[in-house]
């Protein structure tokens, strides 16, 4: 109990200084717990949604592996005839049956041709209203559709776009467009996954969405009381025979969960990764706090040793303080994590996915994980200071400094740091020398870890040189005050190194991501300039295929010299050596594609691949299967006959756009695949007539305005879209990394605050001999600035090394241009000085308020 009382007394005596360390624990634990609670809540929400909407037994077409397959389909989704509905209804044990007519290949637009669909990646769903829909939605205004000109819209979309009863919307579906009047508003019974949901009656859904009557996308059966879903499933399978996909409610729910689990898991583990970074940075803060607190209590610890306290007791006392700090911070972090999860749910709501807080799920493992992890990390960070405290001798009570001297520690640190630096640099270099990107991942990861550890180890040694260099350009212009700030920063290089290392971690990651992102944009821009000859590109960012009427509108646009169609055709290829390549896809295009994309070839001419019954392969495929010009390749088209094609060209694999593509003419494919089975265009290119670029661009945008699901871009637009996509990703990553930087800033504040207390007598003396309060505050601010800049130099240098190595590795996948954004790097460096300045405001203010006589009298 005496150790606990002593530890508790010390924590309370330094509660202000402990608070900043506790904040680091709180933030880190909050991020972990918030991520877990948010992830569990998302799973609960979708589980309830899928369980509510799934039928006891669901029948789907046999070649439809998942409901999500329709999202990227290039042709009409498979359907079930009305006869199947009757056969399912007649199966033993089926109490009721409904036919579902749903597509996610449609677009819903308002009267001004604005797309009402979500921009978050969720689908636009147009479906029929039947009794089964009552499970997921209810009518909250108006009435159900009663004819071909009436429809209902979900409440969230109606609110977002200010759609009211009586308004008309246009549905752009594969068979054609049609206009409908909103006569009802529906509200989700469970949660809105962010989708647009438009209901029409069943006959309208069949004819307008699938172009024929008496068809269904799925058939839903309800099991009779007393019969299991498995039993009814077997009976339905007997009634239908083979060629169908039949699932029970449990199976359908599990499949739907799998469809979203990939996205949820990526988001979960990414956020946990950032939480781990925050924990790493927090370790430096806690380590510094306890190191300085132990240093300030040397005489106190010496007296305790003189009075009989053993090394183990002193060690346990410090670790108990860390335990109290860890438990308190972790407990607060758990609560903050729940609040963070609620905030994330509100944020998701702003994107269209409205999550209900009644689904908030806090599993018992979440607070336990937060408490255990936060406490262990805190104890781990305090272990070395506790071990040093245990080594304090009783004689320390009789002198000013009693910290055990470790004469060889600096030499050992230097040796270990240099070895790890060399090993890490070697791995980073080896990562750039691999033949494939996958082979370089492990060396790159190892190099990143080793160089990070090495910088942490030799940071105190580098501080002596880097801080002096920085001081020459930053501090010495301030005269004696600047020189004193330099000496203060160098007084304890280990502390300066640890403080700077916390900032280094966050900035290294920011710099590396910025280099990679900037290189991605530069590489894509360079490839576009080099390879793309077309003036305009038309495609759907949501992955929707281009409808025939939109394609015709583009072809009829005045001012275009030519229009190129591009689509993918699934096939199985059998090569002359007898080997088969399954699940491959042809890049089928019109011959003008050779003008729109400059594809380098290693053998033959690409235009020859667009001759009848001809094709091309890339050089990697040619090498793998021993192919040469003139070889005959058998192609079994997924929806057509078998063709024998002549290899007319071999393209280079050293390209980014269409890397690995196998080219064939659309006219060749149409010989073997029926028109009804031909997929729609994935994208289209347009080239303007000489001197008519601006007019053709404006007219093309006008002609395609009735099809808002497609984007018309010239090369400038396309480059900007790439920049925006990468910029959005970097903003998200840097926003998450800001957590680590915030913790690092707290570390600087804590170090300065404790340093001011440590130097109380010294501050009193310099004030007594004439230093003004203003000069004192400036000295502390300059010390903070130089520490922050030291951390920025380490972090930005390390990050650029990581980013450069990653770019060299990704060059094997086409990321060939290294672009270091010096403006951004310089801005971050200057921002680090500002961070240091802001971090010093409170410690400098407190130092300036010290009473001179009380400070001199401090023991």
Automatic annotation (TrEMBL):
Pfam families: FtsX (PF02687), MacB_PCD (PF12704)
Record field: transmembrane: 269-295, 322-344, 364-386, 414-432, 444-467, 500-522, 729-757, 778-802, 822-842
Subcellular location: Cell membrane
Domain ABC3 transporter permease C-terminal, first and last residues per copy: 274-394, 736-852
Keyword Cell membrane attributed: yes
Membrane topology (UniProt): Multi-pass membrane protein
Family in the record: Belongs to the ABC-4 integral membrane protein family.
Protein's name in the database: ABC transporter permease
Annotated organism of origin: Streptomyces polyrhachis
């Amino acid at each position: 109990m005496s150790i606990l009382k002593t530890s508790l007394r010390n924590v309370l005596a330094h509660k202000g200084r402990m608070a900043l360390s506790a904040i680091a624990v709180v933030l880190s634990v909050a991020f972990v717990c918030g991520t877990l609670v948010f992830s569990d809540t998302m799973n609960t929400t979708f589980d309830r949604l899928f369980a509510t909407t799934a039928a006891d037994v669901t029948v789907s077409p046999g070649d439809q592996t998942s409901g999500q397959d329709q999202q990227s389909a290039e042709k009409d989704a498979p359907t079930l005839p009305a006869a199947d509905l009757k056969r399912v209804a007649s199966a033993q044990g089926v109490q009721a049956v409904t036919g579902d007519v749903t597509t996610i290949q449609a677009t819903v637009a308002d009267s001004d041709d604005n797309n009402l669909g979500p921009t978050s990646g969720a689908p636009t769903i147009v479906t029929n209203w039947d009794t089964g829909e009552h499970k997921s939605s209810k009518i909250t205004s108006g009435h159900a559709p009663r004819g071909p000109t009436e429809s209902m819209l979900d409440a969230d979309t109606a609110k977002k776009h200010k759609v009211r009863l009586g308004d008309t919307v246009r549905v752009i579906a594969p068979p054609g467009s049609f206009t409908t009047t909103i006569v009802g508003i529906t509200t989700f019974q469970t949660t809105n996954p962010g989708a647009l949901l438009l209901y029409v009656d069943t006959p309208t859904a069949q004819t307008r969405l699938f172009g024929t009557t008496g068809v269904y996308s799925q058939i839903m059966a309800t099991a009779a009381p007393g019969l299991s879903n498995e039993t009814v499933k077997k009976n339905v399978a007997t009634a239908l025979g083979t060629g169908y996909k039949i699932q029970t409610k449990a199976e359908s729910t599990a499949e739907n969960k799998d469809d979203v689990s990939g996205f949820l898991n990526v988001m979960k583990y990414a956020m946990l990764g950032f939480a781990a970074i925050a924990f790493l940075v927090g370790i430096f803060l806690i380590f510094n706090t306890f190191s300085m607190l132990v240093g300030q209590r040397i005489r106190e610890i010496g007296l305790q040793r003189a009075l009989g306290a053993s090394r183990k007791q002193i060690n346990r006392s410090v670790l108990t303080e860390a335990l109290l700090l860890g438990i308190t911070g972790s407990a607060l972090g758990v609560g903050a994590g729940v609040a963070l999860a609620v905030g994330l749910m509100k944020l998701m709501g702003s994107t269209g996915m409205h999550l209900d807080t009644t689904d908030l799920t806090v599993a018992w493992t979440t607070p336990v994980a937060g408490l255990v992890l936060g406490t262990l990390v805190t104890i781990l960070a305090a272990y070395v200071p506790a071990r040093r405290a245990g080594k304090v001798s009783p004689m320390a009570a009789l002198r000013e400094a009693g910290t055990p001297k470790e004469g060889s520690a600096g030499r050992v640190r230097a040796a270990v740091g240099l070895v790890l630096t060399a090993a890490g640099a070697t791995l980073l270099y080896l990562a750039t020398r691999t033949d494939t990107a996958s082979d370089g991942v492990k060396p790159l990861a190892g190099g990143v870890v080793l160089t990070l550890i090495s910088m942490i180890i030799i940071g105190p040694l580098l501080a002596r040189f880097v801080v002096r260099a920085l001081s020459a350009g930053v501090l010495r212009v301030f005269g004696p005050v600047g020189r004193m700030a330099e000496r203060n920063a160098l007084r304890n290089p280990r502390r300066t190194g640890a403080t700077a290392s916390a900032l280094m971690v966050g900035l290294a990651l920011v710099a590396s991501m910025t280099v990679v992102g900037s290189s991605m944009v530069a590489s894509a821009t360079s490839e576009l300039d080099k390879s793309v000859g077309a003036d305009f590109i038309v495609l759907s960012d949501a992955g929707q295929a281009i409808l025939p009427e939109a394609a015709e509108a583009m072809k009829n646009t005045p001012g275009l010299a030519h229009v190129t169609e591009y689509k993918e055709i699934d096939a199985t290829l059998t090569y002359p050596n007898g080997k088969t390549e399954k699940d491959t896809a042809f890049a089928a295009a019109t011959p003008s594609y050779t003008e729109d994309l400059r594809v380098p070839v290693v053998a033959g001419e690409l235009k020859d691949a667009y001759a009848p019954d001809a094709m091309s392969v890339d050089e990697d495929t040619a090498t793998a299967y021993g192919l040469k010009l003139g070889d005959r390749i058998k192609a079994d088209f997924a929806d057509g006959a078998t063709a024998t094609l002549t290899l007319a060209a071999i393209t280079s694999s050293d390209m980014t756009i269409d890397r690995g593509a196998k080219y064939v003419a659309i006219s060749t494919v149409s010989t073997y695949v029926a028109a009804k089975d031909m997929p729609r265009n994935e994208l289209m290119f347009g080239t303007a007539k000489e001197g008519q670029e601006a007019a053709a661009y404006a007219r093309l945008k006008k002609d395609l305005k009735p099809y808002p699901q497609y984007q018309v871009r010239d090369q400038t637009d396309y480059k900007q879209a790439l920049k925006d996509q990468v910029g959005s990703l970097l903003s998200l990553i840097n926003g998450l990394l800001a957590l680590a930087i915030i913790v690092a800033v707290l570390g600087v504040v804590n170090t300065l605050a404790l340093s001011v207390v440590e130097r109380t007598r010294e501050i009193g003396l310099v004030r007594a001999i004439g230093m003004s309060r203003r000069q004192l505050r400036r000295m502390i601010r300059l010390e903070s600035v130089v520490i922050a800049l030291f951390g920025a130099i380490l972090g930005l240098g390390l990050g650029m090394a990581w980013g450069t190595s990653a770019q060299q590795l990704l060059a094997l996948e086409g990321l060939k241009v290294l672009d270091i954004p010096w403006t951004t790097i310089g801005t971050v460096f200057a921002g680090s000085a500002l961070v240091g300045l802001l971090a010093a405001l409170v410690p400098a203010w407190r130092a300036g308020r010290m009473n001179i006589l009380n400070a001199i009298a401090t023991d």
